[in-house]
Design a protein that fits this description.
The protein is mainly α. The protein has ten helices and no strands.
Length: 208
């Protein structure tokens, strides 16, 4: 792979990652409500989902799913159901009067759950899979003997730059959080916002 091709891919990847979308919106919401460590854990899960989709593109599973409306529908339904479940949990927390606490938000016991949430949010989203199936081959010589290696390299590059950007966003949001931490009922408000964001993502997943 030529250096110019790689840098063109990296530039496109950064611009795509920075574009407003459901991942960044949810990451912002979670980082504002739960802190930087929570946001970074969620980011790690999201980029792990990218690595998973890259693997599916490499082995050809993504092409099979692309040509199977039933498989795409199943992924959509599972993904939307999972997001709606998370939205329901956030809504219940809001109704219970959730409060922001630095100690609670940064508790290590919740970080693994947030990581798994990020993984599942991406793995169960067929739009992400189909995006990488269309995007990665544009920068790869598919007739080359090391085409699979090139796809893996580009997929991991995309995941790495996304993690850096997502982590920066989470850290910045957490700093804003410290400024507004003393506001009354803010934790409850964020819980309602999180529920709304997850519900909107679920509906958009089903709509496309």
């Amino acid at each position: 792979m030529e250096a110019s091709t790689f840098f063109a891919f990296l530039t496109a990847s950064i611009l795509l990652t920075l574009a407003p979308g459901p991942d960044i919106l949810y990451l912002l919401t979670k980082s504002l409500s739960s802190g930087a460590r929570a946001g970074i854990s969620l980011a790690a899960g999201l980029v792990s989902g990218i690595a998973f989709h890259t693997f599916l593109v490499m082995v050809g599973v993504a092409a099979v799913i692309q040509n199977s409306p039933l498989a795409q529908l199943a992924l959509k339904l599972f993904g939307a159901a999972y997001l709606l479940f998370l939205a329901f949990k956030a809504f219940k927390a809001a109704r219970a009067g959730a409060k922001i606490s630095i100690k609670k938000a940064d508790a290590g016991s919740s970080l693994g759950e947030l990581y798994r949430r990020g993984v599942l949010m991406n793995v169960l989203n067929p739009k992400v899979l189909l995006f990488f199936l269309a995007f990665l081959p544009q920068f790869v010589n598919l007739s080359s003997e090391n085409a699979s290696f090139q796809i893996a390299l580009l997929g991991l590059t995309f995941a790495a730059q996304a993690f850096v950007i997502f982590s920066a966003i989470a850290t910045a949001a957490a700093r804003v959080r410290k400024i507004i931490l003393r506001k009354k009922n803010l934790g409850q408000l964020f819980a309602y916002v999180e529920a709304a964001v997850l519900a909107v993502i679920a509906i958009s997943l089903l709509a496309l």
